[in-house]
């Protein structure tokens, strides 16, 4: 009797696992929205001036994610939704990279300007090297 209950539980667990695998993934709306926000934020930071390739890639991937998501919803294609989410996440990563490069370039420019203001480092009075 106990063996039969254990077998039933095992079958029930396997059936639940199979059902979980067959469900349609969550819509990629959140990932697309987040990527869109990050692309806009990077554009506000003038990332296109400092990292144009990354910004172009981010915009293209975001647009592709939007189109693929729309097509996948219309055809009830769960694999297409997953691919659109991946594209949106890649777009977000490209936008973050572009913004980071823009910030790094601006900081390097500020550092060079500050170094020019301060002039060369002082030399020791006795002429010895540190």
General description of the model:
This protein has 130 residues and is mostly helical. It has one domain. 82% of the residues lie in helices and 0% in strands. The chain has helices at residues 2-22, 29-44, 47-50, 52-75, 78-118. Helix 2 (29-44) packs antiparallel against helix 4, helix 2 (29-44) runs parallel beside helix 5 and helix 4 (52-75) packs antiparallel against helix 5. Mean pLDDT is 82; it is low at 22-26.
Q: What value does the Rg take, in angstroms?
A: 27 Å
Alpha-beta content class: mainly alpha
Count of separate structural domains: 1
Helix content: over 70%
Number of strands: 0
Number of helices: 5
Distance between the termini: 86 Å
Label the overall shape: elongated
| Poorly predicted parts | 22-26
Main sheet record:
none
Strand content: under 5%
């Amino acid at each position: 009797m106990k063996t039969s209950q254990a077998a039933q539980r095992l079958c029930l667990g396997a059936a639940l696992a199979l059902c979980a695998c067959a469900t349609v993934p969550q819509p990629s709306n959140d990932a697309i929205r987040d990527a869109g926000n990050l692309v806009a934020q990077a554009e506000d930071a003038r990332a296109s001036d400092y990292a144009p390739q990354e910004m172009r890639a981010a915009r293209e991937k975001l647009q592709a994610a939007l189109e693929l998501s729309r097509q996948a919803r219309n055809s009830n294609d769960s694999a297409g939704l997953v691919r659109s989410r991946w594209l949106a996440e890649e777009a977000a990563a490209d936008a973050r990279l572009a913004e980071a490069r823009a910030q790094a370039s601006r900081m390097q420019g500020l550092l060079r300007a500050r170094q020019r203001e301060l002039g060369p480092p002082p030399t020791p009075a006795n002429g010895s090297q540190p």
